[in-house]
Amino acid sequence: MKKLKKSAYTLILMATCFVASPVIIHKIWKSSETKKPVNPPSVSDNSKPNEPPGDNLQENPSTSENSTENVHAETTPIENVPAVPFATSDVSYFDDALFIGDSRTVGIKEYGTLKNADYFCSVGMSAYQIDDEEIDGMTFDEKIDKKQYGKVYVMLGINEVGNDIEVTKTAYRAIVEKIKVHQPDAIIYLQANLHVSYSEENDIINNSAINNLNSVIESLTDNKRTFYIDINEVYDDEYGNFTESYTSDGVHPLGMYYTKWCEWLCTKTISVEDNIQETTAQPETEPDTTTT
User: Fold this and answer.
1) Fewest CB atoms less than 10 Å from the CB: which of 24, 123, 156, 271?
2) Which residues of the chain are modeled with pLDDT < 50?
3) 97 with 150: CB under 8 angstroms?
4) pTM for this structure?
């Protein structure tokens, strides 16, 4: 009888192990999955100068259903675009430059070294609502009519990154076309939006969505009069994220790193004389040879 009970207990124990083992193995496997590594800071600096207040990087409720599509949208590479003949210039290159943008451009104005340039920028500026802005008593139209500019820099879009990408592209194109009308002799630089740090990425604001937005902005350039420049090559870590030690909020550079940005801008200059094409020349008309 004792042997029978012992055999029964053994069978019950074996059956329990048989049923439980897949669950245990699955939990062990899940816990061993690797996560995306967070890079160590590449620059150590304990000083943190004041920074301009940040933009409102929040999802627009009216377009939230499109945000997931924007994050995973495929981008089309730009083809048949001539190489860009960038050169290095000194700060005087920006004597006739106008910078347009949101809080990152406010940072260039306040902490950068390009004090000789003009600025039309504000925290939270949107490509959708730029015509509603009034800065220092001037509207956007009044600012770009104030004087003749040789260069106009535009950096907008981070506040629209969660919105419909085609709507954003249309708004951005309208800004570029307006600049061309008001400043027909100016070179236009479209600046890529900065990435965010790994710790600040979320379902709406993430570097996949920002890359998609930047690709759309780049598609508006022709490398003849409009050019695309991307500061992320300076600020990114090895994983393509904004380097953690360059920022305290994951979105804006620390004050000291706007100097690095300005130095980089000096290496991405185009000669106005060499690259602006004449747009006013009229085609010659053939003489009328009709006889009457």
Assistant:
1) 24
2) 23-50, 58-78, 277-292
3) yes
4) 0.71
Lookup: tokens for 205: 């604001």
Residue 34 CB-density burial (10 A; 0-12 exposed, 13-18 middle, 19+ buried) = exposed
Cβ burial of 273 (10 Å; 0-12, 13-18, 19+) is exposed
Residues in the chain: 292
3-state secondary structure the chain: CHHHHHHHHHHHHHHHHHHHHHHHHHHHHHHCCCCCCCCCCCCCCCCCCCCCCCCCCCCCHHHHHHHHHHHHCCCCCCCCCCCCCCECCCHHHHHHEEEEECHHHHHHHHHCCCCCCEEEECCCCCCCCHHHCEECCEEHHHHHCCCCCCEEEEECCHHHCCCCHHHHHHHHHHHHHHHHHHCCCCEEEEECCCCCCHHHCCCCCCHHHHHHHHHHHHCCCCCCCEEEECCHHHHECCCCCECHHHECCCCCECCCHHHHHHHHHCCCECCHHHHCCCCCCCCCCCCCCCCC
